[in-house]
């Protein structure tokens, strides 16, 4: 099968003195791919002022950009709910550091047109286009005609009381994308489609920490993107795996979870009301002050999306199961490792809970979801 190998992982963020430690077990696999993608979750800056209206802000040295590039990542999305955590200085420092390392940065810019601009990477004559959008948007984080930030895919939320004659009873939560953002995204994808062999769309979205559940706007936006010409949807932000859907022969990964994320914890942090609100979203979430990885246990299961891309588009798509240690370091799993089946079983369970089919075959150390024969 001709073409190039593509690999993509979810959230990456180092809060340690030696960030290269996070990739010691995985960089041979990442470097072996022709294109490797990640979602950056923290700013790479020594400057700026922490903004006051967001829950958690962290940063790493600009030198971490070289670590990411050395690990193999050539395409980085910075379209995140953390992109403006340290103000314009931190925002631009991050972009500058990544670009200086040779990485292609997607989903952000000094204005909306720049944030929406497609980035195309050509390897061995195969042109792969990348776009990135964010739905998790603190005030002032999305780009406008006159303001830096990320490309927005905003969503409305409407609460409908289930029993209208019963005050205080539960509600159905309806979410749907802003029509103007959906139209702009579709136009971007169509433009990318005209000049590329495959279009990969990154989405920072969804319900963080809540097991399995998708917000309704996600499926609307994902289907809209594929209808417009996208070949692969990469979702993240939830910090845990979410269902995988095959729509019109294209794979939608609603969340590929964390990959190399530090979350050290102090007693003071662990007892903050803002953290306790998050902790309540996932039953059984325990804090270990000796660990650098204080996410829910489910967050230790993760995947790297794999795809074979040629001039005819995405020929094969699947994933490699992986596991994250209490030291935040990920490792790829082999089929004989019981955790390999544990990751697959978890995905099968959450897909079933959301009414989404999950068909796959295991080929070596890869779980294949879609395979298209070249004719």
Can you characterise this structure?
With 375 residues, the protein is α/β, with parallel strands linked by helices. The chain has a single domain, classed as Metallo-dependent phosphatases (Purple Acid Phosphatase, chain A, domain 2), CATH 3.60.21. The strands form five sheets. Strands 1, 2, 5, 6, 17, 18, 19, 20, 21 and 22 form a ten-stranded mixed sheet that branches. Helix 2 crosses helix 3 and helix 5 runs parallel beside helix 6. The longest helix has 16 residues. The relative contact order is 0.14. The model has no long low-confidence stretch (mean pLDDT 96).
Fourth-level CATH superfamily: Metallo-dependent phosphatases
**How would you state the average pLDDT, rounded?**
96
Strand content: 25-35%
Q: What is the overall shape?
A: globular
- Helix percent reads 10-25%
What structural category arises from helix and sheet content? alpha/beta
Instruction: Report Rg.
Output: 20 Å
Largest sheet properties: 10 strands, mixed
CATH fold field value: Purple Acid Phosphatase, chain A, domain 2
Question: Structurally, how many domains make up the residues?
Answer: 1
Q: Which CATH top level class fits?
A: Alpha Beta
Q: What's the tally of helices?
A: 9
Distance between the termini: 11 Å
Q: What is the β-strand count?
A: 22
Give the second-level CATH assignment, the architecture.
4-Layer Sandwich
Runs with pLDDT <50, length 5+?
Answer: none
